[in-house]
Amino acid sequence: VHHLHYKYPDGFEALKGIELAVGPGEKVALIGPNGAGKSTLMLHLNGINEPSHGEVWISGLKVERKVLKRIRSEVGLVFQDPDDQLF
Q1: Which residue, 7, 15, 75, 85, has fewest beta-carbon neighbours within 10 Å?
Q2: Dihedral, CA atoms, 73, 60, 68, 78, nearest 10 degrees?
Q3: Where are the alpha helices (DSSP H) in 4-86?
């Protein structure tokens, strides 16, 4: 993740200049209060959200529409509310 910014349609800037590098086999915990941007960041890692600015890379691939199927085979996401997963 390089210089990631994300602004919601209502103008709220949830992510501001996020930098993150995670190596193979490395475990990471995202912790923070409600509204800190944890879920918003995760939605970028499998391409559900598109950055307002910056880039997200997974396993050497830039997360973009043409590689989403491959990215999503490597990045799983489980929503807190199971009803949100059924789409």
Answers
A1: 85
A2: 50
A3: 38-45, 68-74
Residue 18 has φ and ψ, to the nearest 5°, of: -70, 135
Helix (H, G, I), strand (E, B) or coil at 68: helix
Instruction: Report the alpha-carbon distance of residue 87 to residue 83 in Å, rounded.
Output: 9
Q: pLDDT, tens digit, for every residue of 35-86?
A: 899 999 999 998 999 999 999 999 899 999 999 999 988 887 777 777 776 6
| Six-digit token string for 81 | 């509310």
For 27, the token pair is 């475990």
